[in-house]
Sequence to fold (146 residues):
Amino acid sequence: RTQAIESRLSVTLAEDLGDALANGAVLCQLVNHLRPRSVPFIHVPSPAVPKLNKVKCRKNVESFLEACRRMGVPEVALCSASDVLQGDAGRLRGTLRALLHPGAAEESPAAAHAAPALPGPLAGFALFYVSVMSLLFLAYCKLWGF
Fold:
C-alpha cells in the first residue's frame, strides 16, 4: 500500500506506515486525489509547527473516514479513527485496500448471481413508478373493457 500511495501522490512516506499516516493529512490528500474536494479542508504540518495537535489529527482522520464512506468503502472495511491515530497499520491497510481497489473483495457465489440491489432513493422511485404504471394499466383495461 505504501507504494500505491507514494506513486499516486508523488511523496515518500516513512518506513513505518502507521506513523507516516497517523496525522491523517496524507490520507486526506489521497482521497482528494481519487475524488477531488472529498475533504474540503486538511490540517497539514508546517515548518513552524511540524507536528499537528491531537484535535487536528483526529479531524483529518475523521474527514478521511467520512470521505471513504461517501466513496462507497463498506463499513466493515473501515478502520476506526483510533486505529489510525495510534499508528495501527493493520486495520488501516484493509481500509486502503478497499479504497484503492473497490470491488476487489471476493463475492459469495450466491451474491454473484443475485439481482443488484437498488440504492434507497432509486428503489423508492422504482416502486412508485411500477405502482403508477400498474394503476394506469388497470384503469385502461377497465375503461376499454379488457
